[in-house]
Here is the input.
Amino acid sequence: MTRFNQPYYTSIKTPIAQDISAPSFYNSLSGTKSIEGISEPITITMGVNQQGIALSNGSPYGFLINWTNTSGAQQSVIGYQQ
Here is the structure.
């Protein structure tokens, strides 16, 4: 349940890969997950560069979060993985 008492669910759109041998194994290298059933569904893409483009190899910068706000405008945030 959300803080507004709405039910939601998550799904993995593409497999999430992690390098568990790396010191920061909790940082995902690739994959896509979504949070749905809420008024502003969210898509999280792991393993992106600083421009938010998913990498097919190399060391990713972080992750990208996308959603459409209540006004219908597309929003996004690129987060850094340590």
